[in-house]
Amino acid sequence: IKDPVSHEALPTGVLTSGPIYPNSDSTAQQAPSTTLKTAANPNGVSFMEWSNSFARIMAHQGELIECLFSAYSTTTPALDGVEVFANTQDLYSGKPIKTLTRNLRLRRFFKPGTAEVAPGMLQPGELTQGLCAPWQNDYRECACYYWAASRPDYVNVEPGQDGLSHGDMWFAKKRTGSYIPDNRVDSRLWSYDDLFIAWQQHLRFIIRGRDSDES
Known about the structure:
By secondary structure, the chain is an alpha+beta fold. It has 2 domains: 1-20 and 33-130, no CATH class; 136-214, no CATH class. It has 3 helices and 8 strands. The protein has helices spanning 50-55, 136-141, 192-202; strands spanning 13-15, 45-47, 64-70, 99-105, 154-159, 165-169, 206-207, 210-211. The strands form 4 sheets. The protein has a two-stranded antiparallel sheet with strand order 1-2. Strands 3-4 form a two-stranded antiparallel ribbon. Strands 5-6 form a two-stranded antiparallel sheet. The radius of gyration is 22 Å and the shape is extended.
């Protein structure tokens, strides 16, 4: 989608950069400005919430909006076997990625002058069908920068003599000072079922990055 005012394409993905994370297959060097690449994500791209792009064009309901689409068929490997890019230029060759441009009319999502969803826009249940239920699903699964998981991922962090930081995974059952990568079958971590049944017993309050009983 192009911004109706600036005419710039609104991205659906952004390049991700930062230090290597524990037990990662990242090929990036340990530097904050280096793109994080993995075997599954060779271009280091993180997807943005689709609603972020739509929020910027809500003021243009009922108007024609210029939209960009990939020119590649969904029946062939995406982008000739390369996973995804954050913009419309191949990061390696520098050549433009083929796209199609179409003008589409943006339907009126809200009743004029109100915050009420327009009749016929949504079927019963559609607005909430993508929300996690119960809340423990996204709270455990999503990383700390996502709204559904407003908590730190890495707690009780201390600098080590080896020049690296040492701390705990936030939902590790025992605090050992050794980070345990997320793995839903690792019995050292609280599982989804554990949190469904007794989250108030297992989760700890975190104050200034540390367990409350230690801060």
